[in-house]
Amino acid sequence: MPRAPEFWRAPPGWTARLLSPLGWLYGAATARRMRRAGASVEAPVICVGNFTLGGAGKTPAVIALAAMLRGMGANPVVVSRGYGGSSAGPLRVDPATHDAALVGDEPLEIAAHAAVIVARDRVAGARAAIAAGADCVLLDDGMQNPSLEKNLTFAVIDGGALFGNGFCAPAGPLRAPVAAQAGHVDALILIGAATPPDGFGLSGKPFFAARLFPDADVMHALREANGVLAFAGIGRPEKFFDMLRDAGVSVAATKAFGDHQPYRDADLAAIAAAAAEKNLVPVTTMKDLSRIGAARAEAMFAGRLRPVPASLVFDDAYGVRALMARALRGRKRAKKPEA
Description:
Elements: H1 14-34, E1 45-50, H2 58-71, E2 76-80, E3 91-92, H3 100-103, H4 105-110, E4 116-118, H5 122-131, E5 136-140, E6 152-158, H6 178-182, E7 187-191, E8 207-214, H7 216-223, E9 228-232, H8 237-246, E10 251-256, H9 265-277, E11 281-285, H10 286-292, H11 294-300, E12 306-308, E13 310-314, H12 317-335
């Protein structure tokens, strides 16, 4: 996927306004689709989505919520479309044998922390998860896909980008007007922001502030280095670069790629050469490493590439757990009359 246009992030200009009729049509179609009823499955479904195209932080949120659910005694299985992968699924991701070309980079990253099934058909994926032993389904993305009934929906918001210029694609980053999506959202997860945006029909919804923290040991090693060359192909690469700077790492050079963009050998060779020329440590995200592949990274960077694990930490983890517990309990009560 190419990088999001810069005008998506800027105040609306002539390009956005010129494209706004197409954005209105796209947003209206998405909003209409979201109103359809979904199929019910034999386990609670917790959806983690976002209002915009591109990354908002869903993957670290899914990983964090899966860990919370396991800590609550549940056995969640993540269901993902597997964007960028060739498999239609349902297929359980095996990080030891599968690659991003087959299952997608995000499922591969999540699979290091939780069981994941990729399926373009979300209902089939949820049923496969239940057959594999899941007592709850954690849906990675899918907020705008009505095929599967959700019991709880979190919308993730990148506090550094919010809703961009406020227009729908292709005029802006929104998948549909925020107000049209708000009724399908139960709670907000704000990454890097303390308070939610005003208005948009979001008032009164529970919101949970969260922050991404890079691995402390990796940060200590990188602070001792001469400097780093940071590269990333995620929704907003600047978020990764800023996280490193905030941790005290000397970011001497950066290279941004499009979200999910496959890396050619020429891309990696150029990054490795630029880092070696200035004696910099090349660093990237775990999602990017999933696309590159560990063996290929070892060969292309002669063992010098340092991926940076990062964890999402909620300011009010108790509140998140309580909301999920209510959703799980409510689903169980709703299923009792059918027994």
